[in-house]
Design goal:
10 strands, 5-stranded antiparallel sheet, 2 domains, 140 residues, 5-stranded mixed sheet, ATP Synthase, domain 1, alpha+beta, single chain
Length: 140
């Protein structure tokens, strides 16, 4: 019997750099319609992402958790490519900085002159609050 490779290539790219490129057993991705798991042999899929945490598995263990601020994921049977608006290991999230950002963004909403400015600032608050929640999952 021939052994079947049950890994697939996971690539995570942010505007700044290639964040991750490795063969993994599974990844759980925060899709816009809910989290979805990716395994080798997955059906073709393109999904938008919501702010949340990507969990990377080697074997049955989560080996890496990364916050993404949104973006897109493309999945094939052998690869998952994530193009993230922002990507950071959750262990590197500075809770104090994010909390201060949320306060500043809420002030921006109050001071905004147009509905578009309010909407953009409100979306940035949602992303920052999601990042803060992710920081609480460091050891989950």
């Amino acid at each position: 019997m021939v052994a079947v490779d049950r890994k697939f290539d996971l690539e995570l790219v942010s505007p700044e750099k290639l964040v991750l490129s490795e063969a993994v057993d599974m990844a759980v991705i925060p899709g816009a319609e809910g989290d979805f798991g990716v395994l080798a042999g997955h059906s073709l899929l393109v999904s938008t992402l919501r702010p949340g945490v990507i969990e990377v598995y080697q074997g049955e263990q989560v080996t890496l958790r990364l916050f993404v601020g949104g973006g897109f994921a493309e999945v094939t049977g052998t690869r998952c490519t994530v193009l993230a608006d922002e990507a950071i290991p959750i262990g590197e999230i500075d809770v104090g900085t994010v909390t201060a950002d949320i306060e500043a963004l809420r002030a921006e909403i109050e001071e905004a002159d147009t509905e578009d400015e309010k909407r953009v600032a409100a979306m940035r608050v949602v992303i920052a609050e999601s990042k803060l929640a992710a920081a609480g999952r460091r050891h989950a």
